[in-house]
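Structure, all four chains, one model.
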Amino acid sequence: MATTAKKPPMSKDSLLPLLMGHVLAHGLGQASLRPLAKAAGTSDRMLIYHFGSKEALIADLLTHIAGVYAAMLDAALAASPRPGNRAELLAGLLAQNGDPAMQPFQMLWWEIVAGSARDLPGFRAAAQAMVTKLLGWLEAQMPAGEPDPAGGARFLLTAIEGAAMLAAVGHPDTAQDGLLAGGLLQA
Amino acid sequence: MATTAKKPPMSKDSLLPLLMGHVLAHGLGQASLRPLAKAAGTSDRMLIYHFGSKEALIADLLTHIAGVYAAMLDAALAASPRPGNRAELLAGLLAQNGDPAMQPFQMLWWEIVAGSARDLPGFRAAAQAMVTKLLGWLEAQMPAGEPDPAGGARFLLTAIEGAAMLAAVGHPDTAQDGLLAGGLLQA
DNA sequence: TCGAATCTGTAGCGAATGCTACATCATCTT
DNA sequence: AAGATGATGTAGCATTCGCTACAGATTCGA
């Protein structure tokens, strides 16, 4: 009689989005099996069954997150008009990074960077995938008439990531000022 | 008879350098009381006694690390000649960041950034202190005749941190290429 | 239909976690 | 000398950790 859905068959693919939600909300550092399982509506027992180990779960989860990120960029690329110049592109990127909706993703990103720096299993690959994707997206978004789109995209990427880091440590204006002084932004 | 030193009185100040050594070697994420105590030649019991709680210990440790970092920059400032131009300064900074001896510090740095992004107690303050110190150091190191040393320092800081992040995630050349394309480095 | 393979729940294990109770020892004041 | 104060060791507690053993349940092919 009850409206409870009986059999949505559980699988990695059905679990990963729920796990991602928990990790976005609470961070990777505090991600232990029982809370993760609770967030996904299962038990730690099942997580181990499907993923084999926590280490494998985290690795799978990171690749899934990288995939979601890539899809987001693809959607953004299809939706947004090509900016007219570098400053406009950079300003848009900074605004998007600063968007509160992006904050959980940003916080997760720094945990991935830290894990990548320590070469924890799965972290380096996910971080590289996301950076590579972002770099490609940037090249595609470079304004028409750029003499060196690849180099320009790499330049912007470096600036964006530096700005994101400074924002993360509570120097929100420092990067803005620097990019203005460097002529990458217009007042 | 034995040459064992009996009473070096234990204190926060005597413990912090040893704790820092352990954290540089193994990371903050795996820093639990018993291993930390072992590295410092004590017991978890004593760490709690001196610091009150693990949370307070970590906060004290981060402040200490920020102080050590500041002292390192002061020493470097006194020792190094003023570079002749921005590209020279930037190249020197990138080389220093890439130095293998700096790698433990870099890995720790990303953990601090991640903690700061999540606003873990003590992390934001330590990160801000270090960034502020580095920014001041950069301003003092800006080549003579710079029209806007403060803005230039912020610009370089953004670039350096972006480059460091890209190196941490296994894109070691991307930032280099970008900074070349951006005219901040000379080939 | 029936056996086999695939799922899932319950219960728990051994280790590690942060922290505490209690007793002991050293030192310092009066 | 006597007591007070601070420092240290031993032992343990309650909780959480990743993971496993075991037993039902379910599903699917023969």
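Residues 62-181 of chain B form one domain.
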